[in-house]
Design brief:
By secondary structure, this protein is mainly alpha-helical. It folds into two domains: 27-127, Orthogonal Bundle (Arc Repressor Mutant, subunit A), CATH 1.10.10; 148-235, no CATH class. It has eleven helices and three strands, in the order ααβαααββαααααα. Strands 1-3-2 form a three-stranded antiparallel beta sheet. Helix 2 packs across helix 5, helix 9 crosses helix 10 (194-207) and helix 10 packs across helix 11 (214-226). The longest helix has 18 residues, at 77-94. It starts with 21 loop residues before the first helix and ends in a 10-residue tail after the last helix. The relative contact order is 0.09.
Length: 236
Amino acid sequence: MSRESAFSGFPEGNADPTPIPAGFFTELLPAIDDLGELRLTLYAFWALARKSSAVRYLRTVDFQGDRMLMESFGAPAREAAARLADALERCVLRGTLLRVHAAAEDHDPLYLLNTPRGRAAAVGLERGDWSPGEAEAPVELALDRPNIFNLYEQNIGPLTPILAERLREAEASYPAIWIEDAIRIAVENNVRKWSYIQAILDGWQRQGRDVREDRSDSEKARRRYLQGELADPSES
């Protein structure tokens, strides 16, 4: 390994922790002998921890849509997809992930962690007690980014307890790059309010994000803010 490719170290400040059950280190890690399976197991811990819904799951397209994950398999696209499928199968066979289908809907299979909550969700899904519904905002690997609280305070203003809670909710609901870009747009338009940033994020989540439309999205949010639709006493 060259010095250029060496890891430069973790940043200072509050890292964004990923909870990993102790059983991974005592039971799974000694047993896993395939790099792809290990990579996907760790990725599943990371990605599922960032899902906002009470029932956390991933679809095959969630794995396939993460560019950095797919590139980590170190192969052309078709071969990387085959390696992903093999790693998923290994995780399911080992029992790390549960693969379940909705009882009455033609959804792709869902992958859940094999935890008490995951097992209960799997039973409920197969019985038709709940439906996966609409896909959430995508979760993607990315290089380390500024802590959302630091980012807000540096660019928008001081945090209150209410705003801190809203930032936590946003961090669980949207990709980090979306939040960063929405804050950037707020600064560029000189509307340094969380309600304005939230309006941009909501629009991207409802309609899908097209970078080419960022300016028009931000103008719509700005008009709504100036017209008083987004007034929020907690930000004054």
